[in-house]
Specification:
With about 120 residues, this protein is an alpha+beta fold. The protein has one domain: Jelly Rolls (Sandwich), CATH 2.60.120.10. The protein is built from 1 helix and 9 strands, in the order βββββββββα. The strands form 2 sheets. The protein has a 5-stranded antiparallel β-sheet. Strand 5 and strand 6 form a beta hairpin. It is globular and about 35 Å long. It starts with a strand and ends in a 5-residue tail after the last helix.
């Protein structure tokens, strides 16, 4: 389940609910992606290995980086806010921090209905 929260000027913020057992195949895109996990636990796979992300964790995936997701087969759904932007602004550390804070604010506003 996905809900578009913000879209404009090459940037999108999405709220996702990903069911247990879901796998998103390895893929890449020309823009960076970052987000905050609001519920559940999942694994993101990148060239440097696999990382478990849990409630409260944030993640950053640089542009053109092959990545995929795997959710445990049991447990609660993973709920996350994800931001992607073609503008290049997320490539800068300060901009990433600001986007993560914006994602956390959106999560407080919209996430309860996704659980």
């Amino acid at each position: 389940m996905a809900r578009l929260l913000i879209e404009g000027r090459g940037t999108a913020m999405m709220l996702y609910r990903i069911e247990p057992g879901t796998r998103l195949q390895l893929h890449r895109h020309p823009f960076p992606e970052l987000g905050v996990v609001l519920a559940g636990e999942g694994r993101v796979t990148m060239p440097d290995g696999e990382r478990v992300v849990r409630v409260g964790d944030s993640y950053y995936i640089p542009p053109n980086t092959q990545h995929g997701w795997a959710m445990p087969t049991q447990g609660e759904p993973v709920v996350l806010v994800d931001v992607s932007s073609e503008l290049g602004a997320l490539d800068e550390e300060g901009s990433r921090d600001a986007a993560i804070e914006l994602a956390r604010a959106a999560a407080r506003r919209y996430a309860p209905e996704f659980r």
